[in-house]
Specification:
Distance between the termini of chain A: 33 Å
CATH superfamily of the largest domain in chain A: FAD/NAD(P)-binding domain
Radius of gyration of chain A: 23 Å
Number of strands of chain B: 3
Order of helices and strands of chain B: HHHHHHEEHHE
Mean pLDDT of chain A: 97
Strand content of chain B: under 5%
Number of domains of chain B: 2
Number of domains of chain A: 2
GO molecular function (chain A): flavin adenine dinucleotide binding; oxidoreductase activity, acting on CH-OH group of donors
Cofactor (chain A): FAD
Keywords (chain B): Signal
Organism (chain B): Algoriphagus lacus
Mean pLDDT of chain B: 86
Largest sheet of chain A: 8 strands, mixed
Largest sheet of chain B: 2 strands, antiparallel
Protein name (chain B): Gluconate 2-dehydrogenase subunit 3 family protein
CATH topology of the largest domain in chain A: FAD/NAD(P)-binding domain
Largest interface: A-B, 67 and 65 residues
Helix content of chain A: 10-25%
Oligomer: heterodimer
Low-confidence stretches of chain A: none
CATH class of the largest domain in chain A: Alpha Beta
Helix content of chain B: 40-55%
Number of helices of chain A: 11
Number of strands of chain A: 20
Chain lengths: 568, 197
Amino acid sequence: MANFNIDADKNLTYDAIVIGSGISGGWAAKELCEAGLKTLVLERGRIVEHVVDYPTMTLDPWEHELRGGLTPEQKAKHPKGGRSGFIGAMNEHFHANDLENPYTEVKPFLWVRAHQMGGRSLLWGKQTYRWSDLDFEANAKDGHGVDWPIRYKDLESWYTHVEKFAGISGEALGLPQLPDSHFLPPMELNCVEKHVKERIEKDFKGRNMIIGRVAHLTEPLNGRGKCQYRNRCDRGCPYGAYFSSNAVTLPAAHATGNLTIRPFSIVQSVVYDEKKGKASGVRIIDAETSEEIVYTAKIVFVNASTLSTTQILLNSTSNRFPNGMGNDSGELGHNLMDHTYRVGAMGTVDGFEDQYYKGRRPNGIYIPRYVNLKDGPQSDNFVRGFGFQGGGGRAGWGAGSNQEDFGGNFKDGLMKPGPWEFFITGFSECLPYHENQVYLNKEVLDKWGQPTLSIDAEWKANELALNDQARKDAKEMLERAGLKDIMEFDNKHEMGFGIHEMGTARMGRDPKTSVLNGTNQVHGCANVFVTDGACMTSSSCVNPSLTYMALTARAANHAVSELKKMNL
Amino acid sequence: MNRRDALKKTALAFGAAAGTPTLLSLLQACAQTDRVTWTPQFLNEDQARFISAFVDFLLPKTETPGGLDVKADVFIDLMYSKTYDEAAQKQVVADIEKFNADCKAKFGKVFAELSQEDKTACFKDQEANSPKFAPKVWGTGVGPQEPVGFYRSLKSTVLWAYFSSEEIGKNVLSYDPIPGEFRGCMPLSEVGNTWSL
């Protein structure tokens, strides 16, 4: 599968250009290439070839000189991304350099970026859930934001389409608020998770605790191997067991012979042709030589990741679009959303001291939303809802740091697993607020002299009320499940910590209030498509990546059909 | 410990799997109690002696290797050298000096030279007065966190240096780099020690 065609400069004209190679860009490339379109993928960073470019994928701690520790030079590159707590020596090479790519926090906002082929698809959490009409109808029903131009039935077959190829493991339960995917066999809960599940489902009518639905293979698929339970996903998986662009969509696109991927290509703007009334191509800056090049194509997919996509559109000015491409409504850059992060409870579980488990499962439990459902209890304090992720396991030697003990017995005691611990942490839906926004900052330029983003967004009363309820509910559920030493927590993280940025170029029914139409085309520039998180009209409380995949496949197939009809 | 005992214990702990280099280093470690037998990259000799003594007292050799056997002290010096920036390096040196100065004030000697009883008194005092780490969920702490201070921070570093070593990770804890499957429930007796990875 090796040897991507990177010789883009031989030919400056393509049928399609895809900006970005992460989760949604990879899907756009696959669908367009398989439809026969000569497709150029523009990637800001370097090529990361599946397996070949995963240098740390099998390293044990002692095989790395600093055992996973970062040097001061490495740390200095991540003053912002480092706040996530996720950057270590085994994955540092997959995180963007904050110094070369500054952004301005008007209010605190964590923006985690991954600038290489595959983008954040190499690093993501892989939780994959379908959205439902509870989500697509929410704006219309309670009046926040604008109505989604689509409903679940518009996406249903596209969910199935992407799931069959991506490989999603999970258990079918028929929950209306969390539709079942096309599933590979589910992963197993451990003893304590099974115990807590029984107690919660018995004590709380309408609540379910399920194994996480994840983009990990539990059976081989299309030549990819199944999960080996090493839990070293963020280094790149040698088996291709989790979904990434590198292991799944880009190799499929490459296999058609229609894919060219150009690394080190920083997109400056989408070029608008005033005479033809549509986009003619994309202007890039070569990250290594600073050379400017314009590539032309019939259609352009902008999949640079939510905020970068909007940054490109804001920077794509013309006589027709003086305030940014597709910004007739003034909504471009607005309605930024994320999921709240790190609010919940934890505790210990007695009675399973003689039990253990085998394998490091890259997955946990999920408690789907149960508040403000159609036929369930309604809250007076907030609209929308929250779900929980979490999991259980036995404490390891790290617990020794807090034990008031030392010496030989202390050391030997740490060789045995400690108490069973269990936690749940909530993810609350964020409403779309016009004033939560990003805009171009021409005072702060990046390494290549381009304007950067200022981010001005914050949680408001509804999100804080949801979080408050999530914390109380978490504690109550763990109490009723019989846990001990329960600690509730609310870290009050700023926006961005959920790493689920959504909105800023929303879909809608009315060009006066939205940036994209119901098939993800830019209002006023129909041959430009946006199908990453920027397109989202609301945020649900459910992880969004699977929905990006489905929206992308749907829009790409629409684009191909419109091209055939000569409509683009 | 005399050499004969060391040989016996080593044989017990490692069985036939014990390689010659490990055995040699164990014997060498026994012979050295009052001077540093390795060349620190960052610490000076007195500071290195403090780290070695701290490691040895926190995690002494028993049926399983001690902290010095797996060179936890050598790794900590390397970590200070290569992962700490200048400000953090200055801080850790100051912390070591202060720890020793406090020992001198209270017990009359620096930590490495204290009797077992005085070392015990010193650690008990530190345990009682050092704040705890807040629990972590997915890489970030939850709940309020006050600074844990030098003692608990170093204790945590020593545990990391010890348990992330090849000897402990591969031969003492239960090592299974490629489990291949997930079993949610199984008797602990079938696994034995905690999983190393």
